Amino acid sequence: MKHILLVEDDARLANLIAHFLRQNNFKVTVIGRGDTVVDFVATREPDLIILDIMLPHMDGFSIMRAIRPTFHYPILFLTAKDSDFDHVRGLEIGADDYIIKPIEPHVLLARINTALRRVKPMESSECDEIVYGQLSINKGARSVALAQKTIELTSHEFELLWLLASHAGEVQSRDYIHQKMIGREYDGFDRSVDVRVSRLRKKLGDDIQSPTRIITVWGKGYVLSPTAWA
Hints:
Blueprint: E1 3-7, H1 11-23, E2 27-31, H2 37-44, E3 48-52, H3 60-67, E4 75-79, H4 84-92, E5 97-100, H5 105-117, E6 129-132, E7 135-138, E8 143-146, E9 149-150, H6 155-166, E10 172-173, H7 174-182, H8 192-203, E11 214-217, E12 221-224
Parallel strand pairs: 1-2, 1-3, 3-4, 4-5
Antiparallel strand pairs: 6-7, 7-8, 8-9, 10-12, 11-12
Helix pairs in contact: 4-8, 6-8
């Protein structure tokens, strides 16, 4: 049974969500204030976090910054604000997805299941590895190293890198990446893929202004260069 941490200060909404998720075979812990979340995550490590942005004592963005360096499982932002600024800001600091209130329960369930499917447990028999120059990606261990230095990636960032590296030298369309990473069709406006590519570039030491490792092919998509990792 997967353990979901729901961080929401609206008690009525939290109870409704928790009841629905428990009916769908999830273990749910509800926390109603932000300042207790960091310690809880450090000691209990849930399988997924649903995190409201506007919380008493510590907001969702601050919580995300505090836990993301060591918490590598999915985090879904819950927001009442339907604005690109909030969504992009959340993705830039490590959110896997965002859900806008009011919440449609079955949409929430679909988003949760999609996020959890991207997190595969390490199996001893799984040792797929991709190496390009000084870049090494191990799918079994879900680890990345560049010039023998470990690169810490979120689960979503790892999946994006693996997707691009598995097809190095081939352009992957934004539509295809969006479908694979977000689990739904690209609507022409969602900037999730662009934000995540930008974050991945930063972590891999790529030039943000003139990238040479993950290249934008205008009007088509993105391509990982297999020769830019010397």
